[in-house]
């Protein structure tokens, strides 16, 4: 993805934080996915605007935000598995854990600098096309601010049982699905170096990002 699109993608990734451990989330388990994203996106974006450390690219604060707000309500295992592709099924539990850890670090550090561009964005949710009984939906939205509006889509699944609710497992920004983008990058590494080779490559990329963007 081109560098000039990082700010736009960052806005979309910040909206991911809407699925957060905020007050009232448990009580809103039956809330429609589009209504939930609209309500919580606005709450979290307001909070980020007031955090000077995040706007300044403080990686530690961004990691804390991801861990406390995003991860509890994103199916990150499914997201990582889809990005890795068929090799995920052959990976050991330890390899899967390392892949998830490195992939999360990659996402956070890649877009940390772009978070400073979040300013006066507002979110508009488009009419929902799913049926009430659907358990896998796409919520389409538009982020408006400076420049052209940003088209953003969330793919969510509804989890059953205790703690039931909607969880994101993919994100489309400007017509590009996040998981598929990384799958195309990871596939050559896995084909030539295997799962351990991909882990090593991710570690190297994360170290390079850390050296170039200290938080």
Question: What are its keywords?
Answer:
single chain, 215 residues, alpha+beta, Nuclear Transport Factor 2, Chain: A, 5-stranded antiparallel β-sheet, 8 helices, 52% helix, 16% strand, globular
The coarse silhouette is globular
What is the residue-mean pLDDT, rounded to a whole number? 79
| CATH homologous superfamily label | Tgt2/MlaC
CATH top level is Alpha Beta
Assembly category: single chain
CATH architecture title? Roll
> Would you identify the regions where 5 or more consecutive residues have pLDDT less than 50?
17-27
With helices defined by DSSP (H or I, 4 residues minimum), what is the helix count? 8
Structural class: alpha+beta
How much β-strand is present in the residues?
A: 15-25%
Number of domains: 1
Which radius of gyration do the C-alpha atoms yield? 17 Å
Element pattern in H and E: HHHHHHHEEEEEH
Biggest sheet, spatial arrangement of strands? 1-2-3-4-5
* CATH fold field value: Nuclear Transport Factor 2, Chain: A
For the record, give the distance between the C-alpha atoms at the N and C termini, rounded to a whole number.
23 Å
Relative helix content: 40-55%
Number of strands: 5
């Amino acid at each position: 993805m081109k560098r000039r699109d990082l700010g736009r993608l960052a806005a979309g990734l910040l909206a991911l934080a809407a699925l957060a451990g905020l007050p009232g989330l448990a009580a809103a388990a039956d809330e429609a996915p589009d209504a939930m994203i609209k309500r919580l996106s606005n709450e979290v974006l307001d909070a980020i605007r007031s955090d000077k450390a995040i706007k300044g690219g403080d990686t530690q604060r961004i990691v804390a935000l991801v861990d406390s707000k995003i991860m509890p309500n994103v199916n990150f295992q499914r997201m990582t598995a889809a990005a890795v592709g068929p090799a995920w099924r052959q990976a050991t539990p330890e390899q899967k854990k390392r892949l998830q850890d490195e992939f999360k670090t990659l996402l956070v550090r890649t877009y940390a600098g772009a978070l400073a561009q979040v300013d006066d964005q507002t979110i508009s949710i488009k009419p929902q096309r799913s049926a009430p009984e659907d358990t896998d939906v796409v919520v389409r939205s538009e982020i408006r601010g400076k420049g052209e509006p940003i088209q953003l889509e969330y793919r969510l699944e509804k989890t059953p049982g205790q703690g039931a609710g909607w969880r994101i497992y993919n994100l489309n920004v400007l017509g590009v699905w996040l998981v598929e983008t990384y799958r195309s990058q990871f596939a050559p590494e896995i084909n030539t170096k295997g799962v351990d080779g991909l882990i090593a490559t991710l570690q190297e990329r994360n170290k390079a990002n850390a050296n170039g963007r200290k938080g």
